[in-house]
Amino acid sequence: MSRTRLAGLLASPVAWIAVSATAVAVVYTAYVWLIPVAAAQVADSVPVAWEAQLGRAVTAQLVGSRRVSRGRVANRAVERITDRLLSAHPANPYNITVTIINDPTENAFAAPGGRIVVFTGLMRRMETPEQLAGVLAHELQHVLHRHGTRSIFQQSAVAVLASVLGGDSGSSMTAAMDGVSTMGALAYSRRYEREADAAAVEMLRRARVDVRGMVEFFQSVGASEEAELGALSYFSTHPATSSRIASIEAIARDHDYVARPLMTPEEWTAAVHDARRYRAARGDR
Amino acid sequence: MHDATYTDDTPTHSLKFHGDGDTLFWLYLKTNLLTLLTLGVYASWGTVALRNYFLSNTTFAGHRLVYAGTGRELFVGSLKLLGIYIVLAVITAVLRATLGPIGMLVARVLLYVVLFALTPFALYSARRYRLSRTSLAGTRFSFRGSLGECYRVFMPGALVTGMTLGLYYPVWHTRMRAYWLRNTYYGSEPFAYDGEGVDLFGPFFISWLLLIPTLGLSRIRYKAAEMRHDAASASFAGHRFKSTVTGWEMFVIALRMLLFSLITLGLAYPWLLVRAVKYYTSRLALIGEIDIVEIGGGVSIRGGDTGGATGDTLAAALDIDMDFGIGLQP
Asked: Degrees (nearest 5) of the Cα angle A212, A216, A222?
């Protein structure tokens, strides 16, 4: 290409608009499609043993010095629920362990490799075992889909993308790109949450557990959460609760099945009560 | 394009650095120790001492460069910067208190926007300050550009460069260089620059394509080409500059700095830095005979406003790459 021609092109606003549009399209595609797909592929090739080790480390950090609930009735009840959920999922490569932690936090989480933690605060909020089953199914799906591992690779890929875009243009650009990666991480995790929700409903169906429990739980959570977040739910790691309920109900409606109760209400009350008693020594994980 | 109306016999004047690693080592030791003992207060004076050492040990055509900045100026500047920092911290705290965790994110975004918006100001102000405090053969340098024009050249260029994944950079770079150099004066004589993005686009595009495969190293080769191009496009009083740096040599220097610094836990740094500065100064030259005393008038003319040192400390805080426009970093 002759110098004059190139000079003409470089001076043409149309050319630069075209380049920007292409660049935006490329980055968008990489972000929305290429990176998640690549991260999933890489995550799938990570051995289960590595994930289990990572999961142990993550759990140890998040649980800290809180006490493990050793109540036998409580642990057996949770085991029953987990076994029922996994019964319809025979091809499970993980050694699933569910640990109850004595803590008023109303939460549960799944670490890579199969370690699931439920806080007694959450258990106390559950009126029926089907509600807990909904949460456990959701967390199990995070493990089975390797979301934790996938998000690690995704975050690194986004960080690399951000640094390539930012170049060596000083710290303000780098800082801006940091912000972009954070937003990206949030967007990806919302996608995983939606995936886990949909797969959880399917899991409940296959295990013949009443899906209404899951819906009821989200409805009770939604009332308190939504008031806070409102329009800024874009910045949270979970999709807005009302939209979660809507999508869960939509999926549930398509499936008509007869649910078998997990246990009697008395058995459940006994389990929750038992969970509040802890008999573990300090530092027991 | 670029005149080649000189033969190999045409005399050239290059910058010469006369410093040595031993002296620099003790200087670094002294300034770091004093900074530590005064809990950072001495840092401003330490910076001046270092700048003084580098500039006063650099000669051009037999004349020494003189740096007249004071630690007090820098210290006042960094105090002002501290004031700005406190204001930002207060705003962040207020946002976090009113909006919760979302407030943190909003504050962060706001901070980035503010930092980006201040970058041209920092570059402009730092350059004006440093040049006004530098003189050669009794005549001061100065920067006479307008802040408005700085923003007009920087902002759209930065945004378009970002939006095109960096491809617009050669155009943006040459425009900025033109702005910096044409407004830089030695006494009352300005520098000139006639470089154009089209001449840099070739080497830049290649380095851009090879960026990921070479893990960023292709940038070094481009930087050398850019320095050679910018020198050849720059002139002063009708005489062109010339740079003979190569990407390979720059890579070797950078690699040696990294390796030896690591091995000696940073102690070898002064010697490595002296070696690097000697390399870069010796490779930059002005073509032809020039009598700067005659051009400068030998009189300390204060061209334009000298400006405070706030921008200078801001530029340092933002870690912005700065140089005098002809490939030399003060």
From this structure: 140
- Residues A78 and A84: their CA atoms lie apart, in Å, by 10
Q: Which helix (H) or strand (E) holds B74?
A: helix B71-99
> Among residues of chain B, what percentage have pLDDT more than 70?
87
| pLDDT tens per residue, range B10-56 | 778 888 899 999 999 999 999 999 999 999 889 899 989 998 999 89
Q: Which residues of B touch A176 (CB under 8 A)?
A: 112, 115-116
* Predicted model pTM: 0.74
Place of tokens 């954070």: A182
Residues of A identified as active-site: 139
Which of A30-34, A193-197, B137-141, B194-198: highest mean pLDDT?
A: B194-198
- 10 Å CB burial of residue B118 (0-12, 13-18, 19+) is middle
Query: Which candidate, B295, B297, B284, places its Cα nearest to that of B327?
Result: B284
* C-alpha torsion B88→B93→B97→B103, nearest 10: 50
Do the beta carbons of residue A7 and residue B198 sit within 8 Å? yes
In this model, does residue B313 exceed pLDDT 80? no
What residues in B contact A16, CB-CB < 8 Å? 160, 164, 168
Q: Supply the mean pLDDT for chain B.
A: 85
Phi and psi based region of residue B233 (left: phi greater than 0; alpha: psi -120 to 50; beta: remaining):
alpha
Phi/psi for B168 (5° steps) reads -75, -10
Closest CA to B165 of A29, A170, A165: A165
pLDDT at A168: 52
Q: A68 — phi, psi (to 5°)?
A: -80, 135
Asked if residue B312 lies in contact with residue B125, where contact means CB atoms within 8 angstroms, the answer is yes
| Nearest chain B residue (CA) to A17 | B164
How buried is residue B86: exposed, middle or buried, by Cβ count under 10 Å (0-12/13-18/19+)? exposed
CA dist B181 → A64, B75, B237, B258 (Å): 59, 28, 13, 32
Domain residue spans of chain A:
16-275
The separation between CA A100 and the C-alpha centre of its own chain, rounded to angstroms, equals: 19
Question: Residue A116's pLDDT is what?
Answer: 86
**Beta-carbon contacts below 8 Å between A and B:** 75
